[in-house]
Amino acid sequence: MEEEQKTCETCRYFYRHYVRRSGTKFMPLNCGHCSEPRARDKTIDTPACHRYSVRRTQKAKSEE
What we know:
Layout: E1 14-21, E2 25-34, E3 40-43
Antiparallel strand pairs: 1-2, 2-3
């Protein structure tokens, strides 16, 4: 992966925050937190740090 593409959004340690809209719908926010080594506030476009690890993609239900 190129350096330019390494952001917190694509890191496995980044947990995106959401806000609840209309009861059961959730809208993603542009912020979240990092769990490595402990919670730190981050945004999706923050450049990746030295702890960066690529997020594994989940299988679609149709692939299972």
